[in-house]
Amino acid sequence: MRIGVFGAGAWGTALAYTCAKSGNDVIHWGFNGVFDGIPDITRPENVIRTDNMTDLKNCDYWLIVTPSAFFRETTQKMRNVYNNQPILICTKGMEATTGQFMSEILNSEIPDCKHFGVLSGPQFAHEVATDIPTGSTLAGDKEIHSGGHIALSKIYLQDSNDIIGAQICGVGKNAVSLISGFLTVKSSGENERALMFTRAWNEISEIGVKMGAEYKTFLGLCGVGDLFLSATSPTSRNFSAGLSIARGEQYTGTVEGIFALRGLIKRAQELNIKTPVLCEMQTKMKI
Taking the CB of the first residue and of the last residue of the chain, which one, N or C, has fewer CB atoms within 10 A? Predict the structure, then answer.
């Protein structure tokens, strides 16, 4: 199968390489031809790099792996070359300015896309690129499932039809990972950290269910699986940012957890859901 991958950061590169090692031909697009990639890993021969989106027009299946901050801009450009491919969203997060999920942006920018889904789970890019066993939730319809299993056969995929739930889990774990890092420094002890961690995840689950998500999604790979990975490891950008905020240090790069926390609180208010822990942590972190 011919796979088009949009996004050339570490995660986009890891997925491009995984698709190639799964036996597919890959066209990998990078904005302005910039490929940050994973420098210590050799690019497979069946990955072709390009800065021209037209080169991906005839691919059978698309993966979008751009940061959430550039997701709308990228999909606006993709619309001009879209050719009825199933689209798999591999970006976790919410748009900072609107609080929209990536699927909501996709629907508005490529409204004729009939088959789209979400890949979300406990995935550190470097480990995926080096073939360390990895599992993810693949949320979507049959077209998304069948194409996803071919594109990413080297990853254990847990099929789901809960697109909104998979996205809320991805957004929620960013927020809770940030909170967990902050509490690692600021809590009175491990008991308090566990208390606040659990209550925060319960509030996020309640938002999800109110929006139509299935509760079991929060117990799957994109839920507790991703939460466990991101909220306990200093490799996680959000966890590390939480540590930095607690210590009064400057954090670097885009921290999705900050936008996630703000966006989730806004959604909760719109749904008339009380989120005392999320609000308290936002106040304490001054974000």
Answer: N
51 with 33: CB under 8 angstroms?
yes
- Token readout for 193 is 């950290």
Number of domains comprising the chain: 2
Residue 102, domain extent: 2-160
Q: Which two tokens stand for residue 249?
A: 């240090």
**185 and 76 in a common domain:** no
173 counts as catalytic: yes
CB 230 within 8 A of CB 237: no
* Band of residue 50 on the pLDDT scale cut at 50, 70, 90: very high
CA pair distance 221, 234, nearest whole angstrom:
20
At residue 159, does pLDDT exceed 90? yes
Residue type for 252, please? Answer: T
Q: Which of 21, 77, 173, 274 is catalytic?
A: 173
Give, as one character, the DSSP assignment of residue 196. Answer: H
Q: What is the pLDDT of residue 39?
A: 85
